[in-house]
Write a structure and sequence with these properties.
Helix content is 68%, strand content 0%. The protein is mostly helical.
Length: 470
Protein backbone atom coordinates (compact mmCIF):
# COMPACT_ATOMS: atom_id res chain seq x y z
CA UNK A 1 0.00 0.00 0.00
CA UNK A 2 1.38 3.35 -1.02
CA UNK A 3 2.04 6.13 1.43
CA UNK A 4 -0.69 8.54 2.19
CA UNK A 5 -0.75 11.79 0.28
CA UNK A 6 -1.53 14.37 2.89
CA UNK A 7 -0.37 17.44 1.01
CA UNK A 8 0.98 20.58 2.57
CA UNK A 9 -0.82 22.62 5.15
CA UNK A 10 -3.59 24.63 3.55
CA UNK A 11 -3.31 22.85 0.17
CA UNK A 12 -6.65 22.40 -1.57
CA UNK A 13 -7.68 18.79 -1.24
CA UNK A 14 -8.68 18.48 -4.91
CA UNK A 15 -5.07 19.18 -5.90
CA UNK A 16 -3.29 17.08 -3.29
CA UNK A 17 -5.56 14.00 -3.20
CA UNK A 18 -5.86 12.31 -6.62
CA UNK A 19 -8.30 9.65 -5.41
CA UNK A 20 -10.52 12.25 -3.78
CA UNK A 21 -10.40 14.22 -7.01
CA UNK A 22 -11.58 11.16 -8.99
CA UNK A 23 -14.45 10.61 -6.61
CA UNK A 24 -15.34 14.28 -6.61
CA UNK A 25 -15.56 14.24 -10.41
CA UNK A 26 -17.66 11.06 -10.42
CA UNK A 27 -19.96 12.45 -7.74
CA UNK A 28 -20.35 15.76 -9.56
CA UNK A 29 -21.27 14.08 -12.85
CA UNK A 30 -23.61 11.65 -11.15
CA UNK A 31 -25.33 14.42 -9.19
CA UNK A 32 -25.66 16.53 -12.32
CA UNK A 33 -27.31 13.60 -14.08
CA UNK A 34 -29.71 13.13 -11.17
CA UNK A 35 -30.55 16.84 -11.25
CA UNK A 36 -31.41 16.52 -14.94
CA UNK A 37 -34.16 14.07 -13.99
CA UNK A 38 -35.13 16.09 -10.90
CA UNK A 39 -38.09 17.68 -12.66
CA UNK A 40 -38.46 15.00 -15.31
CA UNK A 41 -39.89 12.34 -12.98
CA UNK A 42 -42.97 14.28 -11.79
CA UNK A 43 -43.36 16.01 -15.17
CA UNK A 44 -43.25 12.67 -16.98
CA UNK A 45 -45.92 11.26 -14.67
CA UNK A 46 -48.12 14.29 -15.34
CA UNK A 47 -47.47 14.10 -19.09
CA UNK A 48 -48.70 10.49 -19.32
CA UNK A 49 -51.94 11.43 -17.56
CA UNK A 50 -50.97 10.96 -13.92
CA UNK A 51 -52.26 13.12 -11.07
CA UNK A 52 -50.30 15.22 -8.58
CA UNK A 53 -50.68 12.44 -6.01
CA UNK A 54 -49.22 9.91 -8.47
CA UNK A 55 -46.31 12.24 -9.21
CA UNK A 56 -45.58 12.39 -5.49
CA UNK A 57 -45.94 8.62 -5.18
CA UNK A 58 -42.96 8.02 -7.46
CA UNK A 59 -40.73 10.09 -5.19
CA UNK A 60 -42.15 8.47 -2.07
CA UNK A 61 -41.52 4.94 -3.37
CA UNK A 62 -37.85 5.80 -3.84
CA UNK A 63 -37.57 7.46 -0.43
CA UNK A 64 -39.33 4.59 1.36
CA UNK A 65 -37.02 2.07 -0.31
CA UNK A 66 -33.99 3.98 0.87
CA UNK A 67 -35.41 4.26 4.36
CA UNK A 68 -36.08 0.52 4.67
CA UNK A 69 -32.60 -0.40 3.40
CA UNK A 70 -30.56 2.15 5.35
CA UNK A 71 -29.60 -0.05 8.29
CA UNK A 72 -28.80 -3.19 6.22
CA UNK A 73 -26.78 -1.02 3.81
CA UNK A 74 -24.71 0.40 6.66
CA UNK A 75 -24.07 -3.09 7.98
CA UNK A 76 -22.80 -4.24 4.56
CA UNK A 77 -20.60 -1.14 4.22
CA UNK A 78 -18.92 -1.95 7.56
CA UNK A 79 -18.07 -5.46 6.35
CA UNK A 80 -17.47 -5.39 2.57
CA UNK A 81 -15.18 -3.52 0.18
CA UNK A 82 -16.52 -0.01 -0.27
CA UNK A 83 -15.37 0.56 -3.83
CA UNK A 84 -17.04 -2.65 -4.99
CA UNK A 85 -20.31 -1.54 -3.40
CA UNK A 86 -20.15 1.92 -4.97
CA UNK A 87 -19.31 0.68 -8.48
CA UNK A 88 -22.01 -2.01 -8.28
CA UNK A 89 -24.59 0.54 -7.16
CA UNK A 90 -23.72 2.85 -10.05
CA UNK A 91 -24.09 0.01 -12.56
CA UNK A 92 -27.48 -0.93 -11.14
CA UNK A 93 -28.63 2.69 -11.41
CA UNK A 94 -27.30 2.82 -14.97
CA UNK A 95 -29.48 -0.14 -15.95
CA UNK A 96 -32.53 1.19 -14.09
CA UNK A 97 -32.45 4.63 -15.71
CA UNK A 98 -31.67 3.17 -19.14
CA UNK A 99 -34.87 1.15 -18.97
CA UNK A 100 -36.98 4.33 -19.22
CA UNK A 101 -35.79 5.30 -22.75
CA UNK A 102 -35.95 1.63 -23.76
CA UNK A 103 -39.53 1.06 -22.58
CA UNK A 104 -40.61 4.47 -23.91
CA UNK A 105 -39.23 3.51 -27.31
CA UNK A 106 -41.42 0.41 -27.25
CA UNK A 107 -44.44 2.58 -26.42
CA UNK A 108 -45.09 0.81 -23.12
CA UNK A 109 -44.07 3.48 -20.60
CA UNK A 110 -46.45 3.83 -17.67
CA UNK A 111 -46.75 4.60 -13.98
CA UNK A 112 -45.76 1.05 -13.00
CA UNK A 113 -42.48 1.32 -14.92
CA UNK A 114 -41.56 4.59 -13.24
CA UNK A 115 -42.38 3.16 -9.81
CA UNK A 116 -40.10 0.17 -10.49
CA UNK A 117 -37.26 2.45 -11.52
CA UNK A 118 -37.77 4.54 -8.38
CA UNK A 119 -37.56 1.44 -6.17
CA UNK A 120 -34.48 -0.04 -7.87
CA UNK A 121 -32.61 3.27 -7.97
CA UNK A 122 -33.55 4.00 -4.36
CA UNK A 123 -32.18 0.61 -3.29
CA UNK A 124 -28.90 1.15 -5.14
CA UNK A 125 -28.55 4.65 -3.70
CA UNK A 126 -29.12 3.27 -0.19
CA UNK A 127 -26.22 0.86 -0.68
CA UNK A 128 -23.96 3.54 -2.17
CA UNK A 129 -24.28 6.19 0.54
CA UNK A 130 -22.73 4.50 3.61
CA UNK A 131 -19.83 3.11 1.56
CA UNK A 132 -19.01 6.65 0.45
CA UNK A 133 -19.23 7.93 4.03
CA UNK A 134 -16.74 5.40 5.37
CA UNK A 135 -14.26 6.24 2.64
CA UNK A 136 -13.94 9.85 3.71
CA UNK A 137 -13.27 8.80 7.30
CA UNK A 138 -10.47 6.55 6.06
CA UNK A 139 -8.70 8.92 3.72
CA UNK A 140 -9.39 12.55 4.67
CA UNK A 141 -7.46 13.93 7.66
CA UNK A 142 -9.52 15.70 10.26
CA UNK A 143 -7.90 19.01 9.37
CA UNK A 144 -9.23 18.60 5.79
CA UNK A 145 -12.79 17.54 6.61
CA UNK A 146 -14.34 20.99 6.28
CA UNK A 147 -12.51 21.51 2.97
CA UNK A 148 -13.63 18.11 1.65
CA UNK A 149 -17.24 18.50 2.76
CA UNK A 150 -17.40 22.11 1.54
CA UNK A 151 -16.14 21.14 -1.92
CA UNK A 152 -18.64 18.32 -2.10
CA UNK A 153 -21.45 20.67 -1.06
CA UNK A 154 -20.28 23.17 -3.68
CA UNK A 155 -20.33 20.47 -6.36
CA UNK A 156 -23.86 19.45 -5.39
CA UNK A 157 -24.92 23.09 -5.35
CA UNK A 158 -23.46 23.70 -8.81
CA UNK A 159 -25.30 20.65 -10.11
CA UNK A 160 -28.49 21.87 -8.44
CA UNK A 161 -28.02 25.21 -10.19
CA UNK A 162 -27.39 23.87 -13.68
CA UNK A 163 -29.25 20.56 -13.60
CA UNK A 164 -32.91 21.55 -13.13
CA UNK A 165 -32.77 24.26 -15.78
CA UNK A 166 -30.97 21.99 -18.25
CA UNK A 167 -33.27 19.09 -17.35
CA UNK A 168 -36.37 21.23 -17.89
CA UNK A 169 -35.06 22.32 -21.27
CA UNK A 170 -34.21 18.75 -22.28
CA UNK A 171 -37.70 17.68 -21.24
CA UNK A 172 -39.22 20.24 -23.62
CA UNK A 173 -37.06 18.81 -26.42
CA UNK A 174 -37.87 15.20 -25.58
CA UNK A 175 -39.29 13.94 -22.25
CA UNK A 176 -36.89 10.96 -22.32
CA UNK A 177 -33.64 12.91 -22.77
CA UNK A 178 -33.11 13.76 -19.04
CA UNK A 179 -33.27 10.06 -18.14
CA UNK A 180 -30.82 9.05 -20.87
CA UNK A 181 -28.36 11.68 -19.62
CA UNK A 182 -28.83 10.53 -16.02
CA UNK A 183 -28.10 6.92 -16.99
CA UNK A 184 -24.94 8.01 -18.83
CA UNK A 185 -23.73 9.92 -15.76
CA UNK A 186 -23.88 6.74 -13.66
CA UNK A 187 -21.81 4.91 -16.24
CA UNK A 188 -19.09 7.57 -16.21
CA UNK A 189 -19.18 7.62 -12.40
CA UNK A 190 -18.56 3.86 -12.26
CA UNK A 191 -15.51 4.18 -14.53
CA UNK A 192 -14.01 6.94 -12.38
CA UNK A 193 -14.64 4.99 -9.17
CA UNK A 194 -12.80 1.98 -10.59
CA UNK A 195 -9.66 4.12 -10.75
CA UNK A 196 -9.76 4.93 -7.02
CA UNK A 197 -7.17 2.93 -5.10
CA UNK A 198 -8.60 3.23 -1.59
CA UNK A 199 -8.96 0.11 0.52
CA UNK A 200 -10.27 -0.32 4.07
CA UNK A 201 -7.62 -0.43 6.83
CA UNK A 202 -6.67 -3.84 8.15
CA UNK A 203 -8.25 -4.68 11.47
CA UNK A 204 -6.37 -6.19 14.38
CA UNK A 205 -6.89 -9.94 14.71
CA UNK A 206 -8.30 -9.62 18.23
CA UNK A 207 -10.62 -6.72 17.42
CA UNK A 208 -14.06 -7.15 18.92
CA UNK A 209 -16.80 -5.90 16.62
CA UNK A 210 -20.36 -4.99 17.41
CA UNK A 211 -22.15 -6.77 14.57
CA UNK A 212 -25.68 -5.79 15.56
CA UNK A 213 -27.73 -4.15 12.82
CA UNK A 214 -28.83 -1.42 15.23
CA UNK A 215 -25.35 -0.61 16.58
CA UNK A 216 -25.32 2.78 14.82
CA UNK A 217 -28.64 3.79 16.31
CA UNK A 218 -27.49 2.68 19.76
CA UNK A 219 -24.37 4.82 19.46
CA UNK A 220 -26.38 7.86 18.37
CA UNK A 221 -28.64 7.68 21.41
CA UNK A 222 -25.61 8.60 23.57
CA UNK A 223 -24.68 11.66 21.46
CA UNK A 224 -27.09 14.27 22.80
CA UNK A 225 -25.96 17.26 20.71
CA UNK A 226 -25.80 15.33 17.46
CA UNK A 227 -29.13 13.66 18.17
CA UNK A 228 -30.82 17.01 18.84
CA UNK A 229 -29.55 18.34 15.51
CA UNK A 230 -30.67 15.21 13.66
CA UNK A 231 -34.19 15.33 15.09
CA UNK A 232 -34.53 18.97 14.07
CA UNK A 233 -33.29 18.14 10.57
CA UNK A 234 -35.78 15.27 10.41
CA UNK A 235 -38.66 17.67 10.89
CA UNK A 236 -37.32 20.16 8.37
CA UNK A 237 -36.71 17.37 5.86
CA UNK A 238 -40.37 16.38 5.97
CA UNK A 239 -41.23 19.94 4.98
CA UNK A 240 -38.43 20.01 2.41
CA UNK A 241 -39.51 16.79 0.68
CA UNK A 242 -43.11 17.97 0.53
CA UNK A 243 -42.05 21.41 -0.73
CA UNK A 244 -40.24 19.88 -3.71
CA UNK A 245 -43.37 18.21 -5.09
CA UNK A 246 -45.63 21.13 -4.13
CA UNK A 247 -43.47 23.59 -6.03
CA UNK A 248 -43.29 21.53 -9.24
CA UNK A 249 -47.03 20.79 -9.26
CA UNK A 250 -48.14 24.31 -8.30
CA UNK A 251 -45.97 25.96 -10.93
CA UNK A 252 -47.20 23.50 -13.52
CA UNK A 253 -50.82 24.20 -12.58
CA UNK A 254 -50.21 27.96 -12.89
CA UNK A 255 -49.13 27.47 -16.51
CA UNK A 256 -45.33 27.46 -16.17
CA UNK A 257 -43.44 25.34 -18.69
CA UNK A 258 -40.61 22.89 -18.06
CA UNK A 259 -37.90 25.47 -18.77
CA UNK A 260 -39.43 28.02 -16.37
CA UNK A 261 -39.86 25.42 -13.64
CA UNK A 262 -36.28 24.29 -14.16
CA UNK A 263 -35.06 27.87 -13.82
CA UNK A 264 -36.95 28.28 -10.54
CA UNK A 265 -35.60 25.03 -9.13
CA UNK A 266 -32.14 26.06 -10.28
CA UNK A 267 -32.39 28.95 -7.83
CA UNK A 268 -32.08 26.36 -5.06
CA UNK A 269 -28.70 25.58 -6.58
CA UNK A 270 -27.75 29.26 -6.45
CA UNK A 271 -28.58 29.37 -2.74
CA UNK A 272 -26.76 26.12 -2.04
CA UNK A 273 -23.70 27.22 -4.02
CA UNK A 274 -23.51 30.52 -2.16
CA UNK A 275 -24.04 28.71 1.14
CA UNK A 276 -21.30 26.18 0.40
CA UNK A 277 -18.90 28.95 -0.60
CA UNK A 278 -19.65 30.79 2.65
CA UNK A 279 -19.76 27.66 4.82
CA UNK A 280 -16.35 27.94 6.48
CA UNK A 281 -16.93 31.63 7.29
CA UNK A 282 -20.43 31.01 8.66
CA UNK A 283 -19.44 27.98 10.74
CA UNK A 284 -16.74 30.00 12.50
CA UNK A 285 -19.13 32.83 13.37
CA UNK A 286 -22.50 31.22 14.05
CA UNK A 287 -22.80 28.54 16.76
CA UNK A 288 -24.29 25.31 15.48
CA UNK A 289 -27.53 25.56 17.48
CA UNK A 290 -28.29 29.08 16.27
CA UNK A 291 -27.50 28.04 12.70
CA UNK A 292 -30.08 25.25 12.82
CA UNK A 293 -32.74 27.50 14.34
CA UNK A 294 -32.01 30.17 11.73
CA UNK A 295 -32.67 27.57 9.04
CA UNK A 296 -36.05 26.73 10.56
CA UNK A 297 -37.10 30.37 10.77
CA UNK A 298 -36.05 31.06 7.18
CA UNK A 299 -37.94 28.00 5.91
CA UNK A 300 -41.12 29.04 7.74
CA UNK A 301 -40.99 32.58 6.34
CA UNK A 302 -40.06 31.46 2.83
CA UNK A 303 -42.88 28.93 2.57
CA UNK A 304 -45.32 31.59 3.72
CA UNK A 305 -44.21 33.77 0.81
CA UNK A 306 -44.73 30.84 -1.59
CA UNK A 307 -48.35 30.65 -0.46
CA UNK A 308 -48.97 34.19 -1.69
CA UNK A 309 -47.51 34.05 -5.21
CA UNK A 310 -46.93 31.88 -8.26
CA UNK A 311 -44.57 34.36 -9.92
CA UNK A 312 -41.43 32.37 -10.88
CA UNK A 313 -39.11 35.34 -10.32
CA UNK A 314 -40.34 35.92 -6.77
CA UNK A 315 -40.29 32.24 -5.89
CA UNK A 316 -36.78 31.84 -7.30
CA UNK A 317 -35.41 34.80 -5.33
CA UNK A 318 -36.91 33.55 -2.05
CA UNK A 319 -35.68 30.02 -2.74
CA UNK A 320 -32.09 31.30 -2.90
CA UNK A 321 -32.42 32.66 0.64
CA UNK A 322 -34.26 29.57 1.96
CA UNK A 323 -31.51 27.18 0.87
CA UNK A 324 -28.50 29.40 1.67
CA UNK A 325 -27.92 28.30 5.28
CA UNK A 326 -28.43 24.57 4.74
CA UNK A 327 -24.98 23.57 3.35
CA UNK A 328 -23.09 24.89 6.42
CA UNK A 329 -25.48 22.99 8.72
CA UNK A 330 -24.96 19.81 6.71
CA UNK A 331 -21.19 20.23 7.04
CA UNK A 332 -21.45 20.67 10.83
CA UNK A 333 -23.44 17.44 11.19
CA UNK A 334 -21.25 15.50 8.77
CA UNK A 335 -18.03 16.63 10.42
CA UNK A 336 -19.29 15.73 13.89
CA UNK A 337 -20.29 12.25 12.75
CA UNK A 338 -16.99 11.59 10.98
CA UNK A 339 -14.90 12.82 13.93
CA UNK A 340 -16.80 11.14 16.75
CA UNK A 341 -18.05 7.82 15.37
CA UNK A 342 -15.91 4.67 15.86
CA UNK A 343 -14.42 3.45 12.59
CA UNK A 344 -15.97 -0.03 12.79
CA UNK A 345 -19.46 1.48 13.28
CA UNK A 346 -19.27 4.32 10.79
CA UNK A 347 -21.33 2.65 8.07
CA UNK A 348 -24.15 1.93 10.49
CA UNK A 349 -23.82 5.33 12.17
CA UNK A 350 -24.07 7.09 8.80
CA UNK A 351 -27.16 5.13 7.80
CA UNK A 352 -28.71 5.61 11.24
CA UNK A 353 -28.08 9.34 10.82
CA UNK A 354 -29.75 9.28 7.44
CA UNK A 355 -32.63 7.23 8.82
CA UNK A 356 -33.33 9.80 11.52
CA UNK A 357 -33.05 12.72 9.12
CA UNK A 358 -34.97 11.28 6.18
CA UNK A 359 -37.25 8.55 7.53
CA UNK A 360 -40.33 10.71 7.91
CA UNK A 361 -39.37 12.70 4.80
CA UNK A 362 -40.24 9.62 2.75
CA UNK A 363 -43.90 10.53 3.21
CA UNK A 364 -43.41 14.16 2.17
CA UNK A 365 -43.92 13.96 -1.61
CA UNK A 366 -47.03 11.79 -1.61
CA UNK A 367 -48.61 13.81 1.24
CA UNK A 368 -47.90 17.01 -0.67
CA UNK A 369 -49.55 15.60 -3.76
CA UNK A 370 -52.67 14.64 -1.85
CA UNK A 371 -52.84 18.00 -0.07
CA UNK A 372 -52.47 19.95 -3.31
CA UNK A 373 -55.20 17.86 -4.90
CA UNK A 374 -57.54 18.27 -1.94
CA UNK A 375 -57.02 21.83 -0.68
CA UNK A 376 -54.90 23.62 -3.27
CA UNK A 377 -51.30 24.76 -3.43
CA UNK A 378 -51.70 27.96 -1.37
CA UNK A 379 -53.08 26.20 1.70
CA UNK A 380 -50.51 23.43 1.31
CA UNK A 381 -47.73 26.03 1.47
CA UNK A 382 -49.24 27.53 4.63
CA UNK A 383 -49.49 24.10 6.25
CA UNK A 384 -45.83 23.44 5.45
CA UNK A 385 -44.82 26.86 6.83
CA UNK A 386 -46.65 26.17 10.09
CA UNK A 387 -44.97 22.76 10.33
CA UNK A 388 -41.52 24.33 9.91
CA UNK A 389 -42.31 26.91 12.59
CA UNK A 390 -43.51 24.27 15.07
CA UNK A 391 -40.43 22.10 14.47
CA UNK A 392 -38.17 25.10 15.08
CA UNK A 393 -39.87 26.15 18.32
CA UNK A 394 -39.93 22.60 19.73
CA UNK A 395 -36.26 22.05 18.82
CA UNK A 396 -34.99 25.35 20.26
CA UNK A 397 -34.51 24.17 23.86
CA UNK A 398 -32.50 20.97 23.21
CA UNK A 399 -30.43 22.64 20.48
CA UNK A 400 -29.47 25.67 22.57
CA UNK A 401 -28.70 23.47 25.58
CA UNK A 402 -26.09 21.40 23.73
CA UNK A 403 -22.92 23.11 22.44
CA UNK A 404 -20.53 20.20 21.84
CA UNK A 405 -21.04 20.20 18.05
CA UNK A 406 -18.93 23.35 17.91
CA UNK A 407 -16.07 21.43 19.57
CA UNK A 408 -15.57 19.21 16.50
CA UNK A 409 -14.08 22.04 14.44
CA UNK A 410 -11.11 21.14 12.27
CA UNK A 411 -7.66 21.34 13.85
CA UNK A 412 -4.21 20.83 12.44
CA UNK A 413 -2.03 17.83 13.15
CA UNK A 414 1.25 18.23 14.94
CA UNK A 415 4.59 16.80 13.82
CA UNK A 416 3.85 13.49 15.49
CA UNK A 417 0.63 13.06 13.49
CA UNK A 418 -1.43 13.74 16.61
CA UNK A 419 -4.54 15.86 16.31
CA UNK A 420 -4.14 19.20 17.99
CA UNK A 421 -6.91 19.79 20.42
CA UNK A 422 -8.00 16.13 20.39
CA UNK A 423 -7.44 15.89 24.12
CA UNK A 424 -10.39 18.20 24.71
CA UNK A 425 -12.83 16.27 22.53
CA UNK A 426 -15.14 13.60 23.86
CA UNK A 427 -14.53 10.13 22.52
CA UNK A 428 -17.49 8.32 20.96
CA UNK A 429 -18.11 6.38 24.14
CA UNK A 430 -17.25 9.15 26.56
CA UNK A 431 -13.98 7.43 27.54
CA UNK A 432 -10.68 9.23 27.80
CA UNK A 433 -8.21 9.20 24.96
CA UNK A 434 -5.98 6.71 26.76
CA UNK A 435 -8.90 4.28 27.01
CA UNK A 436 -9.50 4.14 23.27
CA UNK A 437 -9.01 0.73 21.73
CA UNK A 438 -7.14 -0.12 18.59
CA UNK A 439 -10.35 -0.51 16.62
CA UNK A 440 -11.21 3.18 17.08
CA UNK A 441 -8.48 4.86 15.03
CA UNK A 442 -8.12 8.51 14.25
CA UNK A 443 -9.29 9.33 10.75
CA UNK A 444 -5.75 9.95 9.54
CA UNK A 445 -4.11 6.95 11.19
CA UNK A 446 -6.79 4.62 9.83
CA UNK A 447 -6.58 5.87 6.30
CA UNK A 448 -4.83 4.25 3.37
CA UNK A 449 -3.13 6.33 0.74
CA UNK A 450 -5.01 8.70 -1.48
CA UNK A 451 -8.45 10.04 -0.76
CA UNK A 452 -11.90 8.81 -1.22
CA UNK A 453 -15.45 9.95 -1.57
CA UNK A 454 -16.87 12.47 0.77
CA UNK A 455 -19.52 11.07 3.03
CA UNK A 456 -22.50 13.17 2.20
CA UNK A 457 -24.61 13.49 5.29
CA UNK A 458 -28.12 14.50 4.30
CA UNK A 459 -28.63 18.17 4.98
CA UNK A 460 -31.87 20.15 5.23
CA UNK A 461 -32.09 21.42 1.62
CA UNK A 462 -34.51 20.04 -0.95
CA UNK A 463 -34.18 16.32 -1.58
CA UNK A 464 -34.11 14.88 -5.08
CA UNK A 465 -37.47 13.27 -5.77
CA UNK A 466 -36.33 11.16 -8.67
CA UNK A 467 -33.46 9.60 -6.83
CA UNK A 468 -34.81 9.44 -3.34
CA UNK A 469 -32.07 11.41 -1.69
CA UNK A 470 -32.41 14.05 0.92
Amino acid sequence: MKGRRSGTKGSPILRTNPDFRRYWLSSTLSTLGSQLSLLAFPLLVLSIGGSAAQAGTVATFSLVTRTLLRLPAGHLADRLDRRTIMVGADLVRLVALSSIPLVAGLGELGQAQLLCVAVVEGAATALFAPAATIAVRDVVPRKDLTDALSRSQAAMASSSLIGPFLGGWLFTVDPILPFAADALSYGVSAVLLLRIGIRPPREAADTERDNRLTAGLRWLTHQRALLAALLFAAGINVVSAAAQTTMVVSLRQSGAGGTAIGAVMGCAGVGALLGAASAAWLIKRIPAARLFLLIGAVWALGLTVFSRTTDPWTIGAVLVVVVFFSPPAGIVVGRAMLVLAPRDLLGRVSTATGLLMAGLASLGPVLAGFFVDSMGASRTWLALACTAAVVTVVSSVPLLRETSLDATADTDTDTDGDRAGDRDLPSPSGASRADRTADEPHPESAAPDGAGPVGLVPSPPLPRPGTGGP
